[in-house]
Predict the 3D structure of the following.
Amino acid sequence: MQSLKKYIAGLICAFVLLTIAIIGSFCFTNSGTFAMSDGGKPRLNISNTNDYFSQMPIAVPGASGNIIKQISNTGNHSGNLSVSFSAVVNNPGIDGNGDLGANTETAAYIDVNSNGTWDNGDIGLNANGTTYSYNAPLSYDPLNDYGSITWNAVESLKPSATSNLIITWRIPAAVGNEIQCDSISFNNTFTLEDQIR
């Protein structure tokens, strides 16, 4: 009886493994078919997620600047662009508190025509995960508020099109010694999802 139970259990296990193998093969075949639909070229030659590390230069009260990241669709299909910020890491300086992220006023936007200016057609990224259009002024929030935020499908990026993510920052002149020797860092992740799915 024990042998019969082991035999039946073995058959069930083999059936389950065989079923999984068939499903896996079926999924792979479909993926291969979709990938070959453009004569063997991938739909989007940009990798699905690219991480870019950002670090502000040494900054003092009254300083300002821009971080610019170029995003291109090198594929042959349009894709929906999503942008994410990782958590903002505050590295403490002299006072041990890490106050720079809380005191850095930040605005982020997609520079659709890549001209380096907030103008018609550009897409503002609010620190709460929403977007706004050019007719509004740039919306500044503490850099810390951008941490762990994602903006999904903010732009349709056509083949061969290029946009910039521009992160503009400023430190009010009234900020004091609490930011002395502090530094901050974060990653941005860009995802380009094929619109043909």
